[in-house]
Structure formats: structure tokens, C-alpha cells
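Go through this fold for my students:
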Amino acid sequence: MTRDQANAYIVAHHRHHGRVTGHRFIIGAELGGALVGVVVGGRPRARLVEQYRHVEVSRLCSAGADNVCSFLYSRAARVAREMGFASVFTAILASETGGSLRAAGWMYAYTTRGGSQDRPSRRRVDKSPIEPKQIWCPVWCLDVVRGHNATQAALS
């Protein structure tokens, strides 16, 4: 699946995010020959997370078919591990339940503070929700991902 195909699907079906600009991998799920979901693994957004050792699931989008989200999360974890990444993680809104992540065997790691990316010295327009985010990851990399939070807290 190409990035353009994934972006077309994301624009049509995602509730609060738009297109992705880069990726490490993209996986599509089909049911009866029709595309029913996509997952995009990319470079971590957090500046302090080493981008060549870790991958962030930056988009997961489905049309609502049963079990598609948990299927795609489990495939993303498998692909990231087989590609040699030290961890794979995702951020969901604090208001979301994480049911698909639990079904895929992922675990809650921590919650970010949230907030705007805009700073007086580095102006930004927020393109996504600024509420706190829950960070989730598969069991095999839970300690590594929790270490991301400790590193960021120590330096802020």
C-alpha cells in the first residue's frame, strides 16, 4: 500500500487527524476485497525519542469493521519488532478507552501532559487535539517506552 493510498483513506475516515507526511511502514487491512483500515508507523514526534531506534504508530484508521483496529495494532507491533526497532508505541486521546489496544495485547505506559506545540520562540499552529495523550505499547517494549517518559521528565 502506498502513502498516497493510505492518506486518501485517512482523509476520508479519520476523526481528528489528516494526512501523514512520512512513514516507516504502512499496513492496510482488507475484508472481502475492500480496504477497511490502515495503520501508519513513523518517526516518533517527541524530539527526545531516538528516531532510528523507535517507531510511533502515528495513524490508525478504520471504517468501523469489527476487530480491524486491534488486528492492525498487533500487525504494527509485529512488523516493528521484525524490522529491529527497540520499541513501538502510540498516543491516543485521554478521552479514548484503549479497547482496541488492550485487545491487541498492548499496555498503558503513561499519560503525557498535553498542551500546545506553540512556543514564543518557535511558533506553531496546532493541527491536532492538545489534550493529554495516553501512551500505549506492546508488553515486549513497555520498560523502554516508560523510559521515554522518564527521560523527558528529567529534561523538562
Observations:
- The first helix runs from residue 3 to 13.
- The beta strands are 25-31, 34-42, 54-62, 87-93, 106-111, 133-138.
- Residues 39 and 55 are 12 Å apart (CA to CA).
